[in-house]
Amino acid sequence: MDQWKVLMVVLFLMISVNINGRGGVAGYKNYTVGDDLGWFDKLEKTTVNYQKWASSKTFSLGDFLIFNTDNNHTVVQTYNSTIYNLCDDSNALDNDTFQYASPDPSASTVHPVSVAVPLLRVGPSYFFSSDYDGEQCENGQRFSINVTYGQGLPPSLRTPPPGAPGPVSQQSGDDTVPETMVPANFDHPKDIGDDDDDESDDGKKKKSTATIVRSSRWVFSWILIILGLLYTCC
Questions:
Q1: For residue 54, what are the contacts with CB-CB under 8 A and spacing of at least 6?
Q2: Cβ atoms of 77 and 96 closer than 8 Å
């Protein structure tokens, strides 16, 4: 009887480890660019190294980059490596470069600005400040990342609601600091379930089903092994 109890406990622990180890899903993340240093160039903060900061992190769709800066610095995102290398977005296209914050020339004093940028496209993404004709970018206020698929975009970022403000294009001519569209819960990212019916979710559902099947086979194999041990020793 004691052998039965021991083997049942072992089986229970194995099943628990299998479920906890394979069933968990990482949540969406917020990354504060530069951490405590914020988003500035080397002329203002000599120790900033944004590429080094980014190199130790994994970025996925649905994550947010939080830029803490001031109204003398810009936040430009581009998918165009030429624009990035030139530190110049003056000839950018509307569909590959977006300005989330721009300098405020009418401001008599410097004030803090916080900008939240969602990661919406898989692949390379480039960030820089275009202020002072690219001088800030040339002095270290720039970095590139590679965005992975991860969990895919959460429903709140797949289709903006009608009339919702988007990123400000460079060609809009607006020099004020724009409002950035941010989901209400971006300060506390949560796992998003696959409860939509669109075709993009089909692949994820199939992957989830395949994972369940593999886990079930794993558990069943161990049950057979334990039953064999019981038969041998008892």
A1: 143, 144, 145
A2: no
**What amino acid is encoded at 104 in this protein?**
D
On whether the CB atoms of residues 183 and 28 are closer than 8 A, the answer is no
Query: Other C-beta atoms within 10 Å of 71: how many?
Result: 20
H or E segment and range at residue 200: helix 200-233
- State if pTM tops 0.70: no
Decide if 61 contacts 73 (C-beta within 8 A): no
SS3 label, residue 64 = strand
Tokens found for residue 56: 């130790």
Please name the amino acid found at residue 139. Answer: N
Mean of the per-residue pLDDT values of the chain: 74
Query: b/e for 174-190, b at 16 or more Cβ within 10 A?
Result: eeebbebbbbeebeebe
Alpha-carbon span 127 to 77, nearest angstrom: 5
Q: How are the residues of the chain apportioned to helix, strand and coil, as percentages rounded to the nearest 5? A: 35, 20, 45
Closest CA to 163 of 186, 181, 184: 181
Q: Are 77 and 125 in contact (CB under 8 A)?
A: yes
Residue 102 contacts residue 172 (beta carbons within 8 Å): no
* Whether the predicted pLDDT of 105 surpasses 80: no
Which H or E run includes 117?
strand 112-118
